[in-house]
Amino acid sequence: MRGIGEGIGAIALLVVAVVCWNLGVTDSTFAAVVGGQPEFVSTRYSGSWIAAATFCVLVALLLSVDAVRWSVLRRSHTR
């Protein structure tokens, strides 16, 4: 049961990581000043949101590794 809980936690953390990443990226579009020129799109990255997303991915990976470890230990006959 512990491995299933860790798997669900890892999936939830990955969803939170996607939300944090989307909050950390902002696009600003500026219209062309001179006629015939293309518009300018600027992308701004917020370090705190990107760091939170990275942390969530790291913890999700650790939970996944531990879930696999528990499932291997549960099947082992030498335990």
How does this structure look, described?
The protein is an alpha+beta fold. The chain has one domain. Helix content is 66%, strand content 15%. It contains two helices and two strands, in the order H-E-E-H. The chain has helices at 2-24, 47-75, and strands spanning 25-30, 40-45. Strands 1-2 form a two-stranded antiparallel sheet. Helix 1 runs antiparallel to helix 2 (47-75). It is rod-shaped. The model has no long low-confidence stretch (mean pLDDT 90). Keywords: Membrane, Transmembrane, Transmembrane helix. The chain crosses the membrane at residues 7-25, 45-65.
Gist of the model:
This protein has 79 residues and is of the alpha+beta class. The protein is built from 2 helices and 2 strands; from the N terminus they run H-E-E-H.
Fraction of residues in helices? Answer: 55-70%
Give the mean pLDDT.
90
Kindly report how far apart the N and C termini lie.
17 Å
Low-confidence stretches are: none
Put simply, the count of helices is: 2
What is the total number of structural domains? 1
Written as H for each helix and E for each strand, in order along the chain, the element string is HEEH
Structural class: alpha+beta
- Side by side, the strands of the main sheet go 1-2
Radius of gyration from the CA trace?
Answer: 21 Å
Sum up the overall morphology in one term: rod-shaped
Largest sheet: 2 strands, antiparallel
**Total beta strands:** 2
Q: Roughly what fraction of the amino acids lie in strands?
A: 15-25%
